[in-house]
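User: Need the bound-state model for nicotinamide-adenine-dinucleotide:
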Amino acid sequence: MTIDGSQMWGRQTFGVVDPATGAIFAQAPVCTVEQLDQAMDAALRAFHEWRREDDLRRAMLRECAQVLLGALDELAATITAEQGKPRAASVAEVVAAVTWLRYYAELDIGREVVQDDRHGYADVVRRPLGVVAAITPWNFPVALAMWKLAPALRAGNTVVLKPSPYAPLSALMMGELLGRVLPAGVVNVVTGPDPLGDRIVTHPVPRMVSFTGSVATGRRVAAAAAGGLKRMTLELGGNDAAVVLDDVDPEQVADDIFWAALDNNGQRCMAAKRIYVAGSRHDELVDALAARARATRVGPGSQPSVQLGPLGNQTQVGRMAEYVRDALAHGAVLAAGGTALDRPGYFYAPTVLAGVTDGVRVVDEEQFGPVLPVIAYRDVDDAVNRANASDFGLTASVWSADPERADAVAARLDAGQVSVNAHAAGVRPDLPFGGHRCSGIGVENGIWGLHSFTDLQATVRPAPKRPRQTRTG
Ligand code: NAD
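Assistant: Bound-state model below.
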């Protein structure tokens, strides 16, 4: 772990599994209660200096970007080993982290002058909060950590980061790399199985919890953070609808929709997880998606030609089997896949289910895996109502040959981000990303994401009083 600028082991370790083999290939440290206190104290001490020098922070973020780029191969190999995604996708993940660092290094955090006239002066500034607790999931262990680190640091906070116990190694490596640039205590990385997450949220030092993970854990985090009235950002699950209108040629959109749904085996919060298609196009779209599912090369992410690696862990494989069983029992038809692969590791065939209806688990819940339901709708109102009939509201998409029609439908979808003829096309450092309803509280990215790591402070200076006129005579 990286604590107060030093590399530390815990008293115990836990095994990290390679999902491509199902075997433990590394040990990670279990953070003790004392070590967590040490990390928090170090972050608090470092905060007082770190918050002061804006230009220094910018320069150090640029340097951090260089250091990560220099370790690109090593970091990417580690992501693939612990999380499973193909090597090229891991490289892209590290490059994304570098892009985020560079974006925030250049972002100006302005002072807003509200009044500057003969009656006085008033402005508003953004002040850092102090120590931020950052808690991340296993699906993008480096990129999602950086969505927190870069804006939190740029705003002047210090951080204690805890990655998922399923994928702790790349975050540990990142802590060591960033520690080569940053002053001791500015970024601390601790690992261990839960209840470490809960101990971090309830620890008295952090003033904010920046959490990415499932809705169920998000609720626990919100309840625990409420005790200390801590600021929080919750980036939670999604069950994103893609609405395909009847003027679309299914063959033309099938590639984009397939990869919007199945990239990283569907283990992305913003994956297309329910495909609503006009009844007249249902069969054609199912055939086009199923053909792509069958043609996809699945295997260990370390093999160059592989397009999809294993699922993140054993639990995921069991969940996919459950979803398929339930959908078939309720009248869905298997168009492709539907089984775990007969080999070591956590492999599941890319799966397309046809003729699915709402009320089936794979439609109503977040499957977070490579099982894609295709649902026929009657008319556009029906599609919009069903797409919106969800507790989730992270991203959504509309597919149409007619941009005006697509825009009109997009405006009716209730989600933090809606794309037209693409899905989750706006996952960029300069756009806000966050969920409506149970998909989250607050946003990450852009200036809006940075604002979450700050409190507002107004400074007011009324015009000096004129000396009172005194009456004489
Ligand atoms: P998870 O909720 O099981 O775990 C997330 C993190 O929380 C892990 O680090 C875990 O150790 C920690 N944790 C567990 N219990 C905790 C507690 N009581 N207090 C504090 N921390 C605790 O999620 P996961 O399985 O790792 O990730 C998958 C989920 O994350 C999916 O629902 C996915 O949609 C969501 N996700 C959301 C986004 C987004 O930006 N909205 C991005 C990626 C993933």
